[in-house]
Structures are given as C-alpha cells and as structure tokens.
C-alpha cells in the first residue's frame, strides 16, 4: 500500500486541500521528510525543484505552529523573489480557511512601509529573501528570537549567489533551540559546511544524486549557427504552437534582443531578467501563469524557482552551462506527469559542452543539423529522426499567434 498524507498524521483539512489541488499521494521527498520533521529532527534534503519539496516542509510546519502565538515561529529563507512568492502562495492555499494563521513574503522591490505595517500584525510564517530580511533586522523591524522552525530552501543557489554571510547573520538572530531544515538541489562542499555550522545531528535525505530530465519530456538538440537562431525559434514556435513556453538565453542582452524579435512577429511574449523591476516581474509572471502570455524569454537566474502549470515547451536558445542547469531548465515542462518538449540550440563551439551534459546525465539527446551548418538538407539528422509531439495549443485560448 502506498503511503498517504493521513498516515503522516496530517490534519484532514490539509489533506482535503491537497486533494482539491489533485495531490493525493506523497512524493518520495515528502514521504521521507514529513515524518522526520514532525518528530522534530533537523533535516538535510537533496531534492530538485518539481519533486514536491515545498509541501515537504510546509505541511509539517503548519501542523506544528501555534496559531495563537503572536510572534514569527517559522522562517523560510529562499534565494529569489519568485520562489518566495511561490512558496507564500502555496502556504496561502492551505490556510485560506484558517483565520488565526498568517504568512508574509518579504523581498526586495516591495514597498518597505507596507511590509512594516504587515509585520506589526501577527505573522506566524515569514518567507524571505536574504537581502531584504537583513534590511529588516538592521531596522529592528522583525524579531526572529522566537523562531522555532528555520528552512533554508535552495541552499546551493543562495551560496552560489553570494548570500553566505547574510545566511549566517540570519541564523544568528534565531533561537538556538530552533529546528533547522536545509533543502538543496545539490550537496556541495559549501552546503555541507553550512549544514555542519547550523544543523544539529541532521537526518540526510537524498532522493536522487543526479536527477535527469523526466521521461515524459521529449528532448531534441539542433546544431546551427548563432545567426540562424532567431529565424529558427520563430519557425519552431509557429510549427509547435506551444500552449506555454519558456525560452532560455545566456544573457540579459540576448533576452531583450530576442524578446523584441518575437514581439515584432506578433507573439504574446515578455522578458524576465534581473534588470526588470519587481513590479513588472510580478506582472509578467501573473500574465504567464494565467496564459495571457504564450512565451516567456528569460535568463537562468530570473527563472530560478519558476513553477508554472501548463508549460508545454522549453527552448534553450543558448545551451546551458552545465548538466544541473540543463535539468533545471528542462524541469519547467512536463510537470505532474504531463507531456513536454525541450529543444536545445547548439553551435559547433558547443559540441563538447553538449557531450559533457549527456555524459553527466547518462542520456543521449536526439540531434538534428540545421542548413546553416552548410548541409544541403535543412534538417539533416545526425541520429534517427525523433517523433515530434502534437500541437499543445488550446482552442479556448485566443492569445496565441496562429
């Protein structure tokens, strides 16, 4: 018999909320983490985005917080604004019928005065990015002394983006008696040092040491010249007609340039990178989640933690820098067992990089060669021609270029 959430002593009201979201059985990370967290253990969990890790720590925290207390009891620290918003929204779904518990997202780009007003109310759960949280600690507008549950989410990304000192400072402001939960896609040497410094006798949970792309995501790599990329992405989008698609570029400048090109062709699209204001970032993500945009052109950093239902295609306009980034990008599609398509553009200079990604993930990506590589046939296959997915467009949606 597969485990269920009731067997973990999760309250019926939360079980019902999960069922309303069509979540009936726990994922492997939830199956291992929830009982340990409920028992009060510190946890180090290696799990990728899309494995259900958010509910793995949210559910037991909601079971354990004291709804009558008027101080911050649970603090979830995450590297990006988008992930902070996403986690906060997941919590809100579970507590929408509970009047006594409140959650607040704290991140840069928001109106500080509005944050201060909300902090004066009883906030049992705070989800924050390191920079803005440090700002509030310096202003003495938030008190973390009574935090019982501290979650460091995507710890590897926080360290990679230079938040080591901020994380250490935040932890020092919390109670020494707290329960600490560290979630990370990879357990690097720096993550291990962080865990040794701040966790007590932790239980280590490792779902998959190297998680490859989901089997339900069809993959394809197309070799071409860099100058041929713009025309080909337009051609593919018109041919594939994705319901929602994320297009990854290497730099902010390339994102903006491609956005202008796709917009000129009449596609419902927008861009996402670190130079975009927070107000616009939130507006773009809302439009993408509600399918008012068909295409989102983004950098890796901007898309970190991006979890949107209905993404049918991912296009790597520029090849990712390593296998971990490849898995992260591809993981934006094929969610909850649905079919997805991932297309990666690569030039002659990228051949070795593509090979290293395949070797590390122990996969072979079907390949095609574009005519810009001086072949007579426009798509002269290097491997046998893979089957292409059927169109993912929906007649009810009128925002797409036909």
Please give a handful of descriptors for the protein shown.
402 residues; alpha/beta; seven-stranded parallel β-sheet; 15 helices; disordered C terminus
Q: What structural class do you assign from the helix and strand content?
A: alpha/beta
User: Biggest β-sheet: count, sense, barrel?
Assistant: 8 strands, mixed
How much of the sequence is in beta strands? 15-25%
| Strand segment tally | 15
Sequence stretches where pLDDT stays below 50 over 5 or more residues: 375-402
Order of helices and strands: HHEHEHEHEHEHHEHEEHEHEHEHEHEHEE
What is the count of helical runs? 15
Average pLDDT metric: 85
Amount of helix: 25-40%
Radius of gyration: 22 Å
Query: Termini, distance in Å?
Result: 47 Å
For the largest sheet, list the strands in their spatial order: 10-11-9-12-13-8-14-15
- Overall, the morphology is globular
For this entry, what is the oligomeric state of its chains?
Answer: single chain
Describe this structure in words.
The chain contains 15 helices and 15 strands. Helix 5 (112-119) links the parallel strand 3 (103-106) and strand 4. The radius of gyration is 22 Å and the shape is globular. 37% of the residues lie in helices and 17% in strands. Helix 6 packs across helix 8. It has helices at residues 12-20, 28-38, 53-64, 81-95, 112-119, 130-139, 155-160, 164-172, 189-198, 229-240, 252-264, 278-289, 300-303, 323-330, 351-361, and strands at 43-46, 74-77, 103-106, 125-128, 149-152, 179-184, 203-206, 217-223, 245-248, 269-272, 295-298, 313-316, 340-346, 367-370, 379-381. It is an alpha/beta fold and 402 residues long.
């Amino acid at each position: 018999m597969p485990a269920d959430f009731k067997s973990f002593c999760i309250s019926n009201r939360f079980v019902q909320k999960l069922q309303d979201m069509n979540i009936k059985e726990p994922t492997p990370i939830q199956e291992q983490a929830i009982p340990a967290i409920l028992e009060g253990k510190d946890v180090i969990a290696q799990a990728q985005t899309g494995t259900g890790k958010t509910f793995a720590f949210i559910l037991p925290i909601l079971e354990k917080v004291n709804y009558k207390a008027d101080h911050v009891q649970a603090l979830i620290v995450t590297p990006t604004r988008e992930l902070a918003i996403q986690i906060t929204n997941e919590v809100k779904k579970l507590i929408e019928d509970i009047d006594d518990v409140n959650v607040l997202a704290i991140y840069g780009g928001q109106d500080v005065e509005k944050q201060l007003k909300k902090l004066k109310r009883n906030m049992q759960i705070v989800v924050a990015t390191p920079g803005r949280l440090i700002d509030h600690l310096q202003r003495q507008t938030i008190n973390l002394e009574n935090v019982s549950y501290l979650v460091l989410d995507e710890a590897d990304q926080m360290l990679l983006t230079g938040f080591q000192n901020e994380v250490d400072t935040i932890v020092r402001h919390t109670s020494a008696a707290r329960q600490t939960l560290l979630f990370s896609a990879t357990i690097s040497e720096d993550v291990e040092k962080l865990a040794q410094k701040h966790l007590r006798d932790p239980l280590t949970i490792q779902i998959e040491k190297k998680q490859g792309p989901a089997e339900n995501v069809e993959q394809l790599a197309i070799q071409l010249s860099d100058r041929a990329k713009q025309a080909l992405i337009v051609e593919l989008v018109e041919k594939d007609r994705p319901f929602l698609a994320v297009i990854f570029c290497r730099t902010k400048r390339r994102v903006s340039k491609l956005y202008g090109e796709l917009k000129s062709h009449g596609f419902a699209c927008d861009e996402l990178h670190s130079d975009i204001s927070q107000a616009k970032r939130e507006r773009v993500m809302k439009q993408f989640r509600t399918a008012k945009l068909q295409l989102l052109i983004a950098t890796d950093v901007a898309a970190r933690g991006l979890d949107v239902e209905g993404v049918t295609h991912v296009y790597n306009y520029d090849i990712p820098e390593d296998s971990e980034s490849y898995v992260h990008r591809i993981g934006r599609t094929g969610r909850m067992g649905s079919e997805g398509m991932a297309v990666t553009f690569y030039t002659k200079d990228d051949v070795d990089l593509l090979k290293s990604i395949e070797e590390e993930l122990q996969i072979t990506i079907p390949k095609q060669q574009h005519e810009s590589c001086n072949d007579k046939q426009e798509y002269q296959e290097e491997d046998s021609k893979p089957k292409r997915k059927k169109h993912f467009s929906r007649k009810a949606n009128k925002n797409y270029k036909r």
